[in-house]
Amino acid sequence: xxxxxxxxxxxxxxxxxxxxxxxxxxxxxxxxxxxxxxxxxxxxxxxxxxxxxxxxxxxxxxxxxxxxxxxxxxxxxxxxxxxxxxxxxxxxxxxxxxxxxxxxxxxxxxx
Amino acid sequence: xxxxxxxxxxxxxxxxxxxxxxxxxxxxxxxxxxxxxxxxxxxxxxxxxxxxxxxxxxxxxxxxxxxxxxxxxxxxxxxxxxxxxxxxxxxxxxxxxxxxxxxxxxxxx
Lengths: 111, 109
Prior knowledge:
Strand content of chain A: over 45%
Oligomer: heterodimer
Largest interface: A-B, 26 and 24 residues
Structural class of chain A: mainly beta
Helix content of chain A: under 10%
């Protein structure tokens, strides 16, 4: 597609429940990135992929967060046993080389 | 890691006014992008500008890579320009973007 598509737009989970977010990158883009925006002005990098391979996962809290980008499927970000502090907007971005294009985000609220 | 600082942090303008937003970064970069996050939270690409000058309607941007700064100019501001403007950079293709803290702009009618 011509834009990065993220689903769902909103997700509410009880503390301890699992959350799964999806991202379909722009066709032809080989890089996919996940970012977390907690406070309105702060972006935290989580993980990036080059095609199906993890490129950089230095931002991932590995004990509860995992992510995949498999061929012919949307990429996914999964949070096991959500905590209140996971409440944030999660943005996915894709890029062919340098310029990144962002999706509309998934707002996760943990209650 | 690379540091990105934006100024001013907050800006209030009267409709029709012009403004300049600044982004300083601490190291050489391969990519620099300006984004507008509108009040609904959408991140809109404004410019991909690792160097040079670009214009798009009332907006223009200049990056002086050798001096490690970029400027975003907004002319004849409109209420729809309100939101937060982010500058983001990365060192190499495929690397994560490092975002500045943003400039929150409010344009009053």
